[in-house]
Amino acid sequence: MSSALSEHHIFSPGALVEVQTVTTETITGEVLAFEYDDRLLILKSQSSNGSVNSSNVTCLNLDLCGAVKIISEPDAERLAAEGIVPNAKLPEIDLKKLDERLANAISERRLLVEAYKNGAGLEGVSLYTRLQKTVGESFGISWDRDSIIIGKNIRIAKPYTADCISFFNTGPKPPPNLKTSLNYAKQLVEKYWNDQNKASYNLTPLPSGGSPQARSTTTSE
Questions:
Q1: Which of 127, 133, 192, 207 is the most buried (most CB within 10 A)?
Q2: Are the C-beta atoms of residues 58 and 21 closer than 8 Å to each other?
Q3: Which domains does the chain have, with CATH numbers?
């Protein structure tokens, strides 16, 4: 049975509610989450494209909505089986950690721009980005003008192929463990270029001129 709600009502996950927006649109859906302090309600409803494998998810600021009604209360047994705690407060966001991530992202972007200006080009920046995602946390990736430095002792110079990888600041006899790291770096660079070659198209001109097109092959039965 539907009922009108007070502004202090706390919505439980699993409840079916009906909300009227300021544009007089009516949205009916299941409560996924509710943040009491900010009056933020998240509803799941039937997919607008008719798919049974997906759902619409709508975020509503109740301060900007009209009437809100409960159609049905949540099924306590189902919520318990799914591990949902009714009226649980959402965890607080670590703003300090978000600020640190933002600062690191800005600093990283500036390094890429500086390296590009120093002559690294798109190839160098792209390879650097791949290595940063692959081994950045383990070894540390940095720039020395247009050369990529892995850790403290491996340099990748232009044009950034496996043959351009060498030791850096190791003295006349590099430690044995660095040779393993050097070979690993070569494998990573070779894989990067192999992936690039697979992703590129083999272009051929049209017989009558004009724009090039991707080469295709056909087979007959």
A1: 127
A2: no
A3: 3-79 (2.30.30.100), 95-199 (no CATH)
